[in-house]
Design brief:
By secondary structure, the protein is an all-alpha fold. It is built from ten helices and no strands.
């Protein structure tokens, strides 16, 4: 199976994926009814993910790129290094973007406790990148980015026409939504997907049921973690 990502994305039932990509948090964001505290809580957790867990995850994947394989595989290895390096460069900009949005629109992202959902997510990233194979890590990376893209495209689809009377939170939501629905981000996600498929095909030339089951487990876990990562209504008053 060359296109493992297509198989994963189309797995039935779709309810779990929709719970992650059309969560009530995203509905509130898209309708501009999200409270500033709840948005700040989420942004504080995403900063933990981006500033600490993601660079470590990518670094561990880089360390798994083969350097003593056949010459015919060297091109794929180089492309993998280039893309993962791009991930690191991008996440540095992303953290600065978080902090800039928070400052511009008066979102207090400091002082929040780390949520259990955040700890669970970052722990799973560390586990997969440490003990998993390179193709498992790349499928995990693609799943994270694809779910994130779908989630913010859903939120953007709900945005009303912009008004001059919108408050700081609404302006922050529009800025965040626009950032994660750009054509450039879609191209990046597609590049990760293609790379994950190529690595899976290189490692598993035939129809390996065990390999497919392993990837299905990774997909299911990422979807589950993404759903839990969105703060519930009222949670900002308890953290």
């Amino acid at each position: 199976m060359d296109h493992i990502t297509q198989h994963l994305y189309n797995l039935k039932p779709q309810l779990s994926k929709l719970a992650a990509t059309q969560h009530e948090f995203l509905t509130a964001a898209g309708t501009l009814s999200l409270s500033p505290a709840r948005l700040a809580l989420w942004l504080s957790q995403d900063r933990i993910y981006a500033a600490h867990a993601y660079p470590r995850f990518i670094g561990l994947l880089i360390s798994k790129i083969p350097f003593d394989g056949p010459a015919v595989e060297e091109e794929l290895n180089r492309e993998t290094l280039v893309l993962l390096t791009t991930c690191l460069e991008g996440i540095i900009r992303e953290v600065a973007f978080f902090e800039g949005v928070a400052k511009e629109w008066n979102l207090g992202i400091n002082g929040w406790k780390e949520r259990k959902a955040t700890r669970d997510y970052t722990a799973e990233m560390a586990r997969v990148a440490s003990v998993g194979s390179l193709e498992e890590g790349l499928v995990f990376l693609w799943a994270m980015e694809q779910i994130y893209l779908d989630a913010w495209k859903y939120a953007k689809s709900l945005l009303p026409p912009q008004s001059d009377s919108e408050d700081d939170t609404a302006n922050a939501i529009r800025q965040l939504t626009n950032n994660w629905t750009t054509p450039e981000f879609e191209v990046f996600v597609k590049k990760v997907e293609v790379l994950a498929n190529r690595h899976f095909a290189r490692r598993h030339h035939g129809h390996s049921h065990s390999a497919i089951r392993a990837m299905e487990s990774i997909w299911a876990r990422v979807v589950e973690l993404e759903e839990m990562f969105w703060p519930e209504d009222g949670e900002d008053t308890r953290v």
